[in-house]
Amino acid sequence: MAAxxxxxxxxxSGYQLDVxxxxxxxxxxxxxxxxxxxxxxxxxxxGLTRLDGTQMTLGATAVDPHSHFSYSGATNGSGQAVSPAxxxxxxxxxxxxxxxxxxxxxxxxxxxxxxxxxxxxxxxGYDDNFAGRYYGxxxxxxxxxxxxxxxxxxxxxxxxxxxxxxxxxxxxxxxxQDLAPVAYGVCLAGGGDPVACQAGAASYANQPDARIHxxxxxxxxxxxxxxxxxxxxxxxxxxxxxxxxKQKLQGSAQFSVPDxxxxxxxxxxxxxxxxxxxxxxxxxxxxxxxxxxxNAYHQLNSRWAIMGDLTWNRHDRLQEIEIDMxxxxxPDRKVIQKTAWQNSWRASVGASFKLDEQWTLRSGYxxxxxxxxxSSYALTVLPDASRQMYSLGASYxxxxxxxxxxxxxxxxxKEATINRTDDDYNSVNGSPGTLTGSYRTHVNLxxxxxxxxx
Length: 454
Prior knowledge:
By secondary structure, the protein is mostly beta strands. It has helices at 22-25, 40-43, 179-189, 194-201, 268-276, and strands at 54-75, 95-105, 110-117, 122-125, 138-153, 158-177, 210-232, 235-242, 245-256, 280-288, 291-299, 304-313, 320-324, 334-338, 344-354, 359-368, 387-397, 402-413, 416-421, 434-453. A hairpin with a 4-residue loop joins strand 2 and strand 3 (110-117). Helix 3 packs antiparallel against helix 4 (194-201) and helix 3 (179-189) packs across helix 5. It is elongated and about 80 Å long.
């Protein structure tokens, strides 16, 4: 699980992942207060007190996205139309999202457990001629969270829980770099006349781009808390908090500069371009959002149950993506893209029906609000929009010790627009590039899980 526990696509608000339990996927995450298997470690560790003996849950969700970008305009750092240019193909990639949980009841009051899951991720990649390539051509955002937890039963009605998270992030970013503003800046830095430098830089416009590959990794630490109120055997109300984790990813910036630049190898501008785009170290600051969830579960009768969840996500810590590259000069040794994310809400409702002693059926609906405040701050590497999830699920009780969980979800993202101006622009780097267009995405998710009671 540690080797494969790296998500490669994000389908929740921002870069969070919503499929951390196949059982909960079947109700679009509405049933988190049920606390029926060890996946409660992620949703609310206080729910551990409802689990008997020793239990293990393993699962994975296959992600089949369908995506398309249509651009209406794109200009480069020389103010010219980007050429060649197209929509970049189907940018969202297929993936599988795994998880695993283990719980053990120590005594009537204390239950302990550990979870291994993937809370964040994104796998986006565009074709070479993508019109927005100067804002990013791809991202591979992987995560792994190791979450030892405990639940303590205060009395018949109240339980509390605590978990500690060790979180690993591995991020790779790719973008193209128009060489015209780099040449202009190199010429000015060498004492050239601005008019002459601008004329010389024009010969680099619409030439093959330089390419930038940035990578970084880091471990960070946080915690989660939970409370579960059980007024009677049929009703449960949960409150959970998961902290933010601040990490500084350290890695490298690697540049690929095309051959046969205008002016040839003897050109001092070309030599300056190679110096400005020299490989070196890189770092990225990432603060993952904290969440607060309120959820409820109620057994109406021996067959029917209803459930709901309301979650608040604090995304406003991410106001910009800043990548520090101490040896690069494009520009000011940094790549900056403003995000201006805002906090968001997610709401789910669902129901379950016990068909017989073996089969339990579920369904649910979720609305998840995007943190993107407006199209001026949309990101090509995290194309995001508010979305709706429709889910069906089933549990099959093989025997007293073994249960299979199945889930299917259809995720529909609202059409999202982008209308960006290059945040790296300043008077030394020519004209600000622009990108306008729209994203359309829908996703199929198929989950398979297994729970064993020892």
